[in-house]
TrEMBL record:
<feature type="transmembrane region" description="Helical">
    <location>
        <begin position="150"/>
        <end position="169"/>
    </location>
</feature>
<feature type="transmembrane region" description="Helical">
    <location>
        <begin position="12"/>
        <end position="30"/>
    </location>
</feature>
<feature type="transmembrane region" description="Helical">
    <location>
        <begin position="257"/>
        <end position="284"/>
    </location>
</feature>
<feature type="transmembrane region" description="Helical">
    <location>
        <begin position="435"/>
        <end position="457"/>
    </location>
</feature>
<keyword id="KW-0812">Transmembrane</keyword>
<feature type="transmembrane region" description="Helical">
    <location>
        <begin position="88"/>
        <end position="109"/>
    </location>
</feature>
<keyword id="KW-1133">Transmembrane helix</keyword>
<feature type="transmembrane region" description="Helical">
    <location>
        <begin position="397"/>
        <end position="414"/>
    </location>
</feature>
<feature type="transmembrane region" description="Helical">
    <location>
        <begin position="216"/>
        <end position="245"/>
    </location>
</feature>
<dbReference type="InterPro" id="IPR037272">
    <property type="entry name" value="SNS_sf"/>
</dbReference>
<protein>
    <recommendedName>
        <fullName>Transporter</fullName>
    </recommendedName>
</protein>
<feature type="transmembrane region" description="Helical">
    <location>
        <begin position="42"/>
        <end position="67"/>
    </location>
</feature>
<dbReference type="InterPro" id="IPR047218">
    <property type="entry name" value="YocR/YhdH-like"/>
</dbReference>
<dbReference type="GO" id="GO:0015293">
    <property type="term" value="F:symporter activity"/>
</dbReference>
<feature type="transmembrane region" description="Helical">
    <location>
        <begin position="307"/>
        <end position="329"/>
    </location>
</feature>
<dbReference type="InterPro" id="IPR000175">
    <property type="entry name" value="Na/ntran_symport"/>
</dbReference>
<dbReference type="Pfam" id="PF00209">
    <property type="entry name" value="SNF"/>
</dbReference>
Amino acid sequence: MTTFAHEHWSSRFAFLMAAIGSAVGLGNIWRFPFIAGENGGAAFVIIYMMTTLGIALPILMAEILIGRMGGQSPIGSMVRLARQHKKARLWAVIGWGGTIGAFVVLSYYSVIGGWALKYTTLAVSNAFAGMDGEGSGALFADFTASPLTLFFWHTAFMGINIVIVIGGLHKGIERAVTTLMPLLFLLLLGMVVYAAQTPGFDQALGFLFKADFSKVTAMTFLTAVGQGFFSVSVALGAMMTYGAYLDQSVSIPRSAFIIALADTGVALLAGLAIFPLVFTYALAPGAGPGLVFVTVPIAFGQMDNGVLVGTAFFVLLSVAAITSAISLLEPAVSWAEEKFSGGRRTATLVVGGACWLLGLASVLSFNDWSEFYPLASLGVLDGKTVFDIFDFTVTSWVQPTVGILMALFAGWVLSREDVMAALGVTRAGELWFRLWLFAIRIVCPLAILLVFASAVWPDFVASMVQPAD
Ligand code: PFF
């Protein structure tokens, strides 16, 4: 079987920056704060850390491991490994599911990434000055109501990603992430230092770190698992692709731990940058998806250094989104490189172009198609726009399915000797290795099954896991 010779990371640092760049994204800075806000703050944060450590991290290790053992795109790797181990070709569904899932996520991720770019220009031009809640809400509503404006920013965002990915692993992705990630950390620290001096900081600390478990239900766990999967970038083939470019000498367990830790750290720091502003200006912490685009700009419009702080914040958000989007594009591009002989440039242009086209459905979901629910006849998808359907199906169905299959494949299908060799484990009795094996063989599949069920039959699972009152 022929294999395609992909470039390899030029250093462990480059790999880590790319993988942390993939993990740290809109999920950390846009989604985590509002999900924590809606789910009671600190209690959610603690549960989130537990589920990320116990479920997302073991799967992240399995995913990078499978990628490195396969050495190809997720599809190519799975076909190859299934054949090598004389297992059913059906296992390739891990590769297909992940690749298509990542492609679909990118199509709408790019639309939101475009919002971040647009809001950067608004912040620079002092557009938030003196704005109240109503003004900020209207600004956002007017912006999203215009298909042409959203089209423009979606195109700009996707264009940036295509340009980076066309450059290849060394000249494109590595160069981008090794400059952008340090910039991201710097901006984030700057934001937290600024926020620490505002009067709302203490309240934010309490909100994020003083746990009130009275609001916790089993549903909180399920939300945490889903958020952890998205945030750590597992089960969509992105980490598998990055793993395929990784030299044998780099430790997977250590790298995975660093990636998950950095991702969680950034989510918490994002909370520490955002909530002090929210409390200082007496805004609502549980404001939902509008938290970053509607609530936080009000604070920028009222503070003294609003242009500077606001610009820093939206550049941070844009950078986080770009370095994640690259990793969502790469699985399909690497597959197209292997499959067709057109070279990387053509592969990226075709895949990126198709994804851009699909993204137009999400652009319209916020305006012309905002009341178009194409799959309303399937009960659970009723009331969902195309954008909602894409987000929901991938994060609630594709990711859990691929996640379970990845865990089972690494835990039960690959031989233990191969896995130990690939992970650099010398004694089967090593405690962390036994824990990891237990996690991916049993704990992760069962836990994800519950998450899956909660998405498909929300009422049923809620009634099972919540005490009747
Ligand atoms: N982890 C990214 C975020 O938190 O925004 C999103 C993401 C990227 C999910 C890549 C999955 C993935 F494969």
